[in-house]
Amino acid sequence: MNAYDYTVITTDKKRIQGSLWADSKEEVRTKLKLEGYVICSISQSSTKSVSWSHKEVSTTAYQLGLLLQSGISLRRSLELLTEGSKTMLYRSLYEGIQRGQSLSEVLRQKGFPPIALALLESGEMSGNVGESLQYIASYYERERKYRQKILSAISYPLFLLVLMNVFFLVTILFIIPSFTRVFATMHIELPWMTKGLFVLGTSLREHPLIYVGIHAVVIGLLIYAFKQSAIRYRFDRRLWQLAQHNTFLTSLYYTNILHIWALLLDSGISIINTIDITKHIWRNLYGETCSNHVYAMLCKGHSFCESLKSASIGNPFIWQMVAVGEESGELVAMLNHCSHYYESLLTQYIARMERLMEPILLTIMGVGIAILVISVMYPLFTSISSLSGQ
């Protein structure tokens, strides 16, 4: 189903424009004729497919789930959301439901995230679509806040780094040259640090494109290397191995995935399908390989705990909690407990990083400023003292 733009003339001779979702131009033409319009033009819309952000997923799921849990039918809920929205998303969902498609089928065509689709399909099978949508909304809202927490932790250090670089560039390009001319007239021997600073400033002013080109080439090579599967795989494997002994990396990897496993299992999805659905969200190629190994072990009849150990996913704490959950029938509760534990650790690490990064960067900035000042002022003091000695 695609979006089509149309221009028509109404019965009272007014020209109007709009959009419709349909499978073909003929279907759009038929709909418009049934409404009594004179068709001027119909063309397929150039609107790109929807790219779902965490906020959009949580908002859409929350609004639709709230209406459904209030006892309003799916079609009427989509009609109400269409009237209050400026986007064509709800209209396209309504058109798909009118054709007899399920909500999950229509959303899959719109690029809805796989985890949300799995939860929605589970709700459709059990007859609890509204509850499943609320699960989706709460999960993606949690993920959005989690990402905002990490971004807020690194935004201030990044600002200080940018400010520091701008300060040094302005100093080297515009302030240092005036001292270069002063020292040239004084005919004194400059220390190696001052000479290096002057040479750097001169080369930056005379050959700026060379420095820009070098940085562009280095960044391009790093991006190219990171996109190579073999290099990326080795890098991700090294990170994975470090995560076995580093609490911060462990928290970073497992906080999210443990919560997703618990959420999918709690919604009625089998453990095998849960692993299959979540194998692409590790953001680590080696982790995806390990997840495939877990899937294969589960298909052979091994327990979840044995599969995780065999694939080197998790650590003794997680394995013990999973084993207890499997024995007691409380696997979802154990996974949630592990997720909350690592989330609290991650929050502590982020708070500690925020406290430490500011003084560290300010210290680096102070050392840099001190080097600039010493490089310029030391020759001046030396020349003044030599003149006073004469």
From TrEMBL:
Residues 62-177, 258-379 form the Type II secretion system protein GspF domain. The chain crosses the membrane at residues 150-176, 208-226, 360-381. GO terms for cellular component: plasma membrane. It is found in: Cell membrane. It is a multi-pass membrane protein. Keywords: Cell membrane, Membrane, Transmembrane, Transmembrane helix. Pfam families: T2SSF (PF00482). Belongs to the GSP F family. PANTHER family: GENERAL SECRETION PATHWAY PROTEIN (PTHR30012), TYPE II SECRETION SYSTEM PROTEIN F-RELATED (PTHR30012:SF0). This is Type II secretion system F family protein.
